[in-house]
Design a protein that fits this description.
Elements lengths: L2 H17 L17 H19 L4 H4 L12 H21 L3 E4 L2 E4 H22 L8 H11 L3 H6 L14 H8 L8
Antiparallel strand pairs: 1-2
Helix pairs in contact: 1-4, 1-5, 2-4, 2-5, 5-6, 6-8
Length: about 190
């Protein structure tokens, strides 16, 4: 699966999950220990807001602090949809043109950045489902694609503190193995 297709599929799944959050679920705790549901959704929306200018060639300094703070406002579902749509539209051309994206930890091809954000959307989509008692099942093709990409990145992510320690849990299925690689306990409650 190419990076654009993977990005689109994780965006669609993330958006559906985020737009399905009920009014009484925004304060629910998540597998991300310090985040409630609203903070988790705001985090991913922030990543999606950053994506278009970065894919367009902007630097972190040029983007500045415009995406700091609460991005969800009074209608998180609508904001989530707009952010996802705008980010989704920025990916294909940037990947096709092999643009370089200037991230806080270095310069990367647009394809690599799309894969990074796709993985984040997939894993945080599971976090959101776990927090809201939603369907935790992830698309097996997407799980396989993210697992293949993450295999060579896991130790780097862990050394940077971007993912927690691997929990000591059975990883006899691909989804559980991927969640564990990202520091998640597949049976989190």
């Amino acid at each position: 699966m190419d990076a654009v297709e993977l990005y689109r599929r994780t965006t669609a799944e993330w958006t559906a999950r985020a737009q399905g959050v009920g009014p009484d679920q925004w304060a629910a705790r998540t597998p991300c220990e310090e985040w409630d549901v609203r903070t988790l959704v705001n985090h991913v929306v922030g990543e999606q807001r950053w994506l278009p200018p970065l894919m367009g060639g902007a630097t972190i300094g040029q983007v500045g602090d415009r995406f700091d703070g609460d991005l969800l406002g009074d209608d998180p579902g609508a904001v989530t949809g707009v952010a996802a749509s705008e980010a989704d539209a920025a990916v294909p051309d940037a990947v096709a043109e092999q643009r370089i994206v200037h991230l806080s930890f270095g310069d990367f091809p647009a394809e690599e950045y799309a894969l990074q954000v796709a993985a984040e959307q997939l894993i945080h989509g599971w976090d959101l489902a776990a927090a809201t008692d939603g369907d935790r099942h992830l698309d097996p093709e997407v799980v396989d694609a993210v697992a293949e990409w993450f295999a060579s990145n896991e130790e780097l992510y862990r050394s940077m503190g971007a993912v927690g320690a691997r929990p000591d849990v059975p990883t006899d299925d691909p989804q559980s193995a991927l969640l564990a690689a990202f520091g998640r306990d597949p049976s989190w409650k």
